[in-house]
Amino acid sequence: MPKIPYKPEKTREDDEDYEIVSFEDFCDKSPGSKTDLLTLNDNINYRLCYESDKGSKLAETEGESSRSADRHTETSLNGPKGVTFKRRLSNSFAPFGRYNGKGGRAPLFSGVIPKPKNEGESGAREHRYQRFSEQRNIFQRAWEHLPGLGSGMLGVALVCALCVAAWWAVGGAVGGTWGEEHYRKLWEKTHPDAIKKPLSPMPYEKQAPEYRYHDHNNLSTKNKSNATERKKTELNKKNVYPERTVEVLQDMCSKVEELMKFDCFPQGIANEKDCVKRGCCWKSTDTQGVPFCYYPSHFDSFRFLNMTEDKHGMSVYMEKVRPSGFPADFEVARMDFKYLSDDALQIKIYDAEHKRFEPMQPEIAMVSKPLAKKKYRVQVDGSLIGFKVIRNSDNVTIVNTQDVGGLILSDKFLQISATLATSHVFGLGEKRARFMNDLNWKTFALFNRDRPPTEGLNLYGTQPFYLAVEHDGNSHGMLLLNSNAMDIVLQPTPGITYRTTGGILNFFVFMGPSPKEVVAQYTELVGRPFMPPYWSLGFHLCRFNYNSVNATRNVWKANRDAGIPFDVQWNDIDYMHNHNDFTYDTERFAGLPEFVKELHSEGMHYMIIIDPGVGASEEPGTYPPYDRGVEMDIFVKNNTNQILIGQKPCEFADTFPRNVSANARCQARWRPRLLERPRARTERARQAPANRALRTIGDILAQHHELDLYADGLGHLQHLAVTKDDMNEPSNFRDGAAVGSCAPEQLPYLPHTSDTQLRTHTLCMDARHYAGRHYDVHNLYSITEAVATYFSLAEIRGKRPFIITRSTFVGMGKYAGHWSGDISSEWHDMRSTIPELLSFSLFGIPMMGADICGFRGDATVELCKRWMQLGAFYPFSRNHNSDTSKPQDPVSLGPEVVEASRSALRLRYSLLPYYYTLFWRAHVYGDTVVRPLFFEAPEQTNLHEIDTQFMVGPYVMVTPILEQGAAVTRAEFPGPHGWYNILDGQFMACDKSYELTDNETVSVKGGGIIPLQSPPLQGPVTTTNTRSSPLQLLVAPDRDNRATGELYWDDGDSLNTYEEQKYSHIEFSLNNTEIRSNVQWWGYGVPSLNRVTVLNQPPIKMVAINDQPCVKPCEFTYNAQSKVLQVIANLSLDKPFNIKWYVTHKVKAPNPNWRNWMGGKNNP
């Protein structure tokens, strides 16, 4: 039935001559059919006709009626094909028209029909379906009734026909006003609970009175009325579900192949009795990982009630049929499909009757874009549980949940399984593993946890997003936006199972079809990465426990004097007094403000580590952050509504700000603490009156400028954790609370965290935040504070914030970068940083790196040398280690590490314009900065498993030496366009693997133009002095002697330079023997260009710039051995230029022999 819209205004009084009819109550069931629903093929509709024949019931009991009966064959959705139904004819009252036996059809029934009032009439009536074609106009309808009239009644019939016609015409014209409003009024009277009440919002929108089925496979439609509340109540009261005989269950189980076995008993130890009781199959096996207890081919935990669809999506209601085995099943579930754009789809599965927790971050604007040509379609079948997402271009089902595993929806356990189109799946973090996921029956947990990175265990962040790449290169991605503790199971079907302990199942599917497009679509939804300040791309140096400002200055000066390119000096939490935030130790770190001034004067920057856990051990009135927090009521509460007390590793008590709330409220509480620079702990501070802690923001800001201890960024945000370095999960050195106790967790399912309870090393699950229980918001801890910190720093400094955090959640890249935590100084740990670097590129967090040379343990000279050669090309490049390890800054480990570090970092600094342009593209377009090799050629499946090499942008490849004692490494050089050594321009290889030495680990792909900026040859190297140097271009031609590149440039530190058009953007292109520039936008001054290097060129006779011969001061050189052309000139980039050269003798290279023509010392 069409949905009757809600109209609050009254038009007419209720009419008792009309009644509301339920479509369900009037359905006929043919013998052997499994349902009373008829498939409405080709949009054929049905109406109810009344029979007032008082003897109809008697006729049915005594025998078949003597009336003629037509027979119709229909297709039942769940039943057999070709079911035959009878339709009786009757002369009874039929106000909407009657079948005339000659093809005439009645108009569509709208849900409310007149009730005949025949005196003495029996209350019992039969109801039958009548099929009809398209609606006729009034003249056609009148004509249909003429043949049935007798000749003696012709005049009366004509008058009646005209009256009926007039009645029909008026009824049709007024149908949208009086008729519709009248019927709506009657419907509202009988369905008061289904009416929207703006002042009292309902937990879900009821789609009454219509239940509509839609099968996208055959475009057939089925209408069925709502199941009555009485029937739902009876079903719940009886708590019955369809029983299966042993034979039926065995037959269903025998149809399940081994790879299609999805675990039906994931909690505890399964046994056959409990497995069969749950309605599942039992079969032991010797294959590791294959479940003994698995779902049958059709596990009917739910059944469809209805479905509605419009141009923006569709909604499906489902009713529980079978208990899941977990407490508090959803009685009615809703599944919404929202078409966000041609490329993106949302699938939301939740309780239709009760509101449940949903993450407040990331902030997603759920606005559908105009749909031009969707790349997907959704298929829903009323006889199956679940859905399919199909790619339209090739009809490949990319995600299929229909009768795959069991759909379980309960209070603390939600599960859904799906088969995928490929076994090449990437992402799903944070975990230590290879870049391409192992689908051999692997289970891993996502629940933010403070622990050293270890295979098979949950780590610091939760990123339930995957990228799937098929063998032809077509790709898609899927995100589960859920913040509760969860397990993800991968199996070789290929299949995936999500099990979460709360919230809802909120999926987003991204259609690509290329991998880079999937990531761009994902970051468009969760937030584009932040634009970093230029200086943050320089090298960072830190150590936990320098222990004094003098030791910090000595390390800084030694490495600077050794020629190590160097931009940012850090201090870990040892600068604090008693490890309390917003303080510094005036004895060990006396003169810290003066040291920060010195750094700034040298064009360098300073960063400190802030642990947002606030100390609770100080005397009242002596530590303003705690005193003010108590007054503002910002700390996490326990289950008795008291401030929750945790513990630091140094035995000090700690409190936890409850920042998990609305951003504005969180920022209002965090901003004043950031305004207060670390201040000296003195007796005067301890004795200061309480109102000093409540000084105005302006006073605090003025005090910080006076102290001049203005750090340029914040690192290692602990996000409400105890004050130990790098613990933003949050981490607690007591399981739950140091004072008081936690309520029992009583979980029906505990994810594979290796812990016996979720509160291990963190807060009580019943701890109270502004947004709810810690049980729901634990994984949101880091991102909610990152949001508040980002906007607070932007307001305080008036420049771009730079935040590095260990714990992450979906959308973190919009506000902060990430580093991989407390890794060990081991060769295996160094190798593992590349897969994690690539994974976080997929997650939209390009500002990522690892502690170079490792954080825990003592690094050897060889390991640190190789790690510096690798880490120099991390987007976030920092050497950092613990207080229990020996110093590992380059100078401390000797000349071999110094030389390797200096060479690698000088190359990095020369590439910073290229890096910066890549970060701009990530910020604006959602591109990746670091990416796997297959991103440029996803159809080359041999590249999918490579995670010992990585690309920086589309043109630069890094292949580090990762094995102890090795002097060479083997690299893959994919594609037909050739690769060059970035240091000397020599051709290396093309579409093959090749063995590299120390000086060949960074290469450039043919087809790219790389903007460079050489650091100064003498003196310290920082981004400040490098940015003032001229630019260069490195041109690497492809096989057709073509190449492209670009440069983005702004002041490197101001907010919103792109949005305010305070930037410049220049594009470069090579076509055969000519380079051209094209100024896309000019809004900020760019250094001039002083050198252009073109690789792999035949002998050159002459060079022209802007159609003028290159004469002094313009120069060009050509190296016949390396085949490298260099043009030295001073070119302004604010206007287009062209450089053209002429060869001594023209050499044309046929494509089949192109590699031989390339030449070079490494020509294969």
Give a written overview of the molecule.
By secondary structure, this protein is of the alpha+beta class. The protein folds into four domains: 18-194, no CATH class; 227-526, glycosyl hydrolase (family 31) (Immunoglobulin-like), CATH 2.60.40; 572-819, Glycosidases (TIM Barrel), CATH 3.20.20.80; 1006-1164, Immunoglobulin-like (Sandwich). Helices cover 20% and strands 24% of the residues. The chain has 21 helices and 61 strands. It has a nine-stranded parallel β-sheet with strand order 40-39-38-35-30-28-27-42-41. Helix 11 packs across helix 15 and helix 17 runs parallel beside helix 18. The longest helix is centred in the first third of the chain and has 37 residues, at 154-190. It is globular, with a radius of gyration of 36 Å. Residues 251-297 form the P-type domain.
Attribute tags:
Immunoglobulin-like, nine-stranded parallel beta sheet, disordered C terminus, disulfide bond, 61 strands, TIM Barrel, alpha-1,4-glucosidase activity, alpha+beta, 20% helix, membrane, 1164 residues, transmembrane helix
Structural topology:
Blueprint: E1 18-20, E2 45-51, H1 56-62, E3 69-74, E4 83-88, E5 112-114, E6 126-132, H2 138-145, H3 154-190, E7 210-215, E8 220-225, H4 229-238, H5 246-254, H6 272-277, E9 281-282, E10 293-294, E11 302-310, E12 313-320, E13 332-339, E14 344-351, E15 376-379, E16 388-391, E17 396-400, E18 408-409, E19 414-420, E20 425-429, E21 442-446, E22 463-469, E23 475-480, E24 486-491, E25 495-500, E26 505-510, H7 515-526, E27 540-541, H8 549-561, E28 568-571, E29 583-584, H9 592-601, E30 605-609, E31 614-615, H10 624-632, E32 645-647, E33 653-655, H11 663-675, E34 679-680, H12 683-686, H13 697-707, E35 713-717, E36 768-769, E37 772-773, H14 774-777, H15 781-797, E38 803-805, E39 817-819, H16 827-842, E40 848-849, E41 851-852, H17 861-871, E42 878-879, H18 895-910, H19 912-925, E43 930-931, E44 950-952, E45 956-958, E46 969-973, E47 979-981, E48 987-989, E49 992-996, E50 1002-1005, E51 1008-1012, H20 1023-1027, E52 1031-1036, E53 1042-1049, E54 1064-1071, E55 1074-1082, E56 1089-1094, E57 1100-1105, E58 1108-1109, E59 1115-1119, E60 1124-1131, ...
Parallel strand pairs: 27-28, 27-42, 28-30, 29-34, 30-35, 35-38, 38-39, 39-40, 41-42, 52-56
Antiparallel strand pairs: 1-5, 2-6, 3-4, 7-8, 9-10, 11-12, 12-13, 13-14, 14-26, 15-16, 16-17, 17-19, 18-19, 19-25, 20-22, 21-24, 22-23, 23-26, 24-25, 31-33, 32-33, 36-37, 43-44, 44-45, 45-50, 46-49, 47-48, 47-50, 51-52, 53-54, 54-55, 55-61, 56-60, 57-58, 57-61, 59-60
Helix pairs in contact: 2-3, 11-15, 17-18
